[in-house]
Sequence to fold (111 residues):
Amino acid sequence: MTLNLFCKFNVIKMNDFTIEIYCFVNDLLLKIDDKSLNKRRKLTNSQTIATVIISSKYFYGNQVLVCVYLKSHHGFDIPDKSNFNRVLLSLTDLLANLFFALGIIFKKSQS
Fold:
């Protein structure tokens, strides 16, 4: 009984974290990313970055498991593994800008 309750609590906590991370990344990317989405892509930049963050926090970096989780629980239209990695590699400059902006935000909030 307690194990089942513990698992349900962790899933609720993970669902809340998923929504919070996606909203935060999406709001931040609206400010710094001006690229329009390619029609062939299934995921937005925000969804891709949120997927990577969630995989590192809850799935030990296993992107296949997090893709299954996001597709079943949040309705993300996840591409296959090769296309997902291709999209992720195309976001390296955007990720660098994102973390630079986050560093500025954290630095300003501390002073």
Observations:
- The chain has one domain: 2-110.
